[in-house]
Amino acid sequence: MSMSKIRAFGLAILLLTLSSIASAVEPIPLRAGPVTMIFDSENVFLRYIRVGSHEILRGINAPVRNQKWSTVAPKVSNLKVEKGDGGFRVSFDVVCAEDDLDFRWKGLITGNANGLIEFTFDGEAHSTFKRNRIGFCVLHPAAAAGQGWIIETVDGKRTIGGFPKYISPHQPAKNLKAITHDVASGIQARVEFEGETFEMEDQRNWTDASFKTYCTPLEIPYPVEVLKGTKIRQKLKISLSGDLPAVQGQAAGTINGRGGSVLTLGERESALPLLGLQVSGEVKNLTGLQLERLKALHLDHLRVDLAISGKSFIEDLRRATREAKALGVKLHIGVSVGDSPAFDQLSEEVMALQPPVAYWLVTDAEPSKFAKAYLGFEPLLNPSVQLGVSMTTNFVDLNRMRPSSTSIQAVGFAINPQIHAFDNASMVETLPIHADIVNSSRAFGGYPQIIGPITLRPQLVNGKVAPGGPPVDRFPTFVDRRQGTDFTAAWTIGSLKYLADARAQSATYFETVGWNGIMDADDVASRPSGWPSRPGELFPVYELLREIGEFAGGTVRQVDSSDTLAAVGLALHKPGRLRVIVANLSGEPQTVTLRGISSDPGKANSAASGMVKIGLPAYGIGRIDQASE
User: Fold this and answer.
1) What is the average per-residue pLDDT within 482-497?
2) What is the pLDDT of residues 187-236, one digit of tens each?
3) CATH 3.20.20.80, the chain: domain bounds
4) What is the dihedral of CA 550, 551, 557, 562, to 10 degrees?
């Protein structure tokens, strides 16, 4: 293919300094006989445990979570790795210290030639503090959904069952001592727990690509005071049985991106979701230049969230209306009804302003609150203005409070990839689950899926800023310094690809302007030191959305990936035009092969069977344009 037809954009990489943001330490490949894995020492995460090509576990870690559910970032020292005789031994020390919390533990991971893996956690509190959880989390992959298991509980009972196929709103297994499940035909894996009582939750509720088995059941009251000197010791054993593959010829633990991924363009098509952005939470008045930049994206809507139990919402509604009219787009308005909703005042403002509303989205999903909201909104509804439910937290809250009113015309929920982990690899793992949660949500009643806000960090919990992940200098917990980097653009391609696959009707990403936006504010002088972008800078995700916006009203063709954790493709189609945007989802350079596209840029069609190779840097993006039928 002519290189003029392949374009890479957004490749300027902004330097990040925090270990919680981007891993700077090379993952360590390990082997235990037929079992391979990698050890991410910076995040103390044993990842991608496989036998042959079959995934046994997505990972094992041992987080320390304080009384606010924030995970205290681990600091690792004295790392020692020994390999030989078909096995390995890894030892290390960990310090988790933040505010009054000081907990330290020694880790030991061993694996032998028979595929037996043991992980020991031996810790001690060096201060008195309160915690919600300390200890192992075992992640079975989301691909286990629907597979059978044998559960052994602490009282000695054995139960035959299976991982839930659809996302379970509550714990599918409790009081666990061991889990045995089929990894592949003729191969079983057993995970045994020691030192605590464990239970399982379906982490797909939060877009994590796993079923998490964690210690300390949630029914036990928390937070719990941990006295200085308290010792906590836990141990895991992973063993295999059955027809295990031969070790010869197997690669050691693999790292995403190495060797190159293959993307295959398919035939199935779905509508490109209607794209929108949130009104900026930082910049109150958009400049003429900012408005022109936003017009170039061909957006469908803006989203604003209002709390109508008071008067402060009026100015936010007026501002959102001004911006939507200036851009020629619709409004999605999330509404917290509260205890004393000012519906009369809202109606007066709507009559005066005539905002271009497409959806009023009630964020109080309790049946009584929605019933009250319906009565208040009914005069404002018509065939082009509809009423829905949209949780500003996560799918789990919608899943546990499923809509039942016949008055509901749409459902939605927020998405962010950092409820349980904060490193790039874990965030990439969430992407395929965007399709799973849309499909599960649609099963509630076939409502249109109005998805958003979609952000890097949690935004709101019950109207308050969410705790987010580990502290990031003096930055608010709802801000992620990766916002202006290539990583965010690559992650967004994956998100939109999977939402389109699941036929979501709309998707609302990020904010218009500011440190949670797609371009930076003009004045960033008041920000904490270390903010990596320049005043007014366009972020890579802006360029991405501009490239996608040219296909507004078009369709998305299926693109399959040989490694969903390493590369993703978004194929946009309009009559006469085909654009494939390819993203490297790994922190390593790789050459991605795109199959099913003609090598002649002037002769692309649905039956094309050629291929193109695209070299991409870490989190790099490439674009291929062709004519089509």
Assistant:
1) 97
2) 999 999 999 999 999 999 999 999 999 999 999 999 999 999 999 999 99
3) 266-557
4) 20
Spell out a b/e string for 536-547, using b for 16 or more CB atoms within 10 Å of the CB, else e.
bbbbbbbbbbbb
The 8-class DSSP code of residue 273 comes to P
Q: Where in the chain is the domain with CATH 2.60.40.1180?
A: 3-8+259-265+558-627
Output the pLDDT for position 460: 59
Domain covering 266-557, topology: TIM Barrel (3.20.20)
- CA nearest neighbour of 108 among 239, 12, 235: 235
Burial class (CB in 10 A: 0-12, 13-18, 19+), 524: middle
> Do 484 and 516 form a contact (C-beta atoms < 8 A)?
no
CB 170 within 8 A of CB 400: yes
pLDDT number for residue 226: 97
Give dist(CA 187, CA 241) in Å, integer. 6
Angle at 431 between CA 204 and CA 184, to 5 degrees: 65
Other beta carbons within 10 angstroms of residue 91's beta carbon come to 15
Q: At what angle do helices 486-501 and 540-549 cross, to 10 degrees?
A: 30
Q: Which of 478, 517, 460 is nearest to 336 (CA)?
A: 460
Give DSSP secondary structure letters for 561-579: ES-TTTEEEEEEEETTEEE
For 332-365, how does the pLDDT look when each residue is reduced to its tens digit (9 = 90+)?
A: 999 998 878 899 999 999 999 999 999 999 998 6
Backbone angles phi, psi at 273, to 5 degrees: -55, 150
CATH architecture designation of domain 28-242: Distorted Sandwich (2.70)
Strand partners, 181: 149, 189
Q: What type of residue is 258?
A: R
Q: Give dist(CA 275, CA 462) in Å, integer.
A: 25
Q: Residue 617, class by beta-carbon neighbours within 10 Å (0-12 exposed, 13-18 middle, 19+ buried)?
A: middle
Position 1 confidence tier, pLDDT thresholds 50, 70, 90: very low
Q: What is the mean pLDDT of residues 572-585?
A: 96
Q: H-helix or E-strand containing 225?
A: strand 224-226
Measure CA of the first residue to CA of the last residue in the chain; give whole Å: 18
Residues whose CB falls within 8 Å of the CB of residue 544, separated by 6 or more in sequence, listed in order: 9, 10, 489, 492, 493, 581, 621
State which fold the 3-8+259-265+558-627 domain adopts. Answer: Immunoglobulin-like (2.60.40)
Q: For residue 112, which of 88, 133, 141, 95 has the smallest C-alpha distance?
A: 88
The overall pTM is greater than 0.70: yes
Q: What's the burial of 158, exposed, middle or buried (CB within 10 Å: 0-12/13-18/19+)? A: exposed
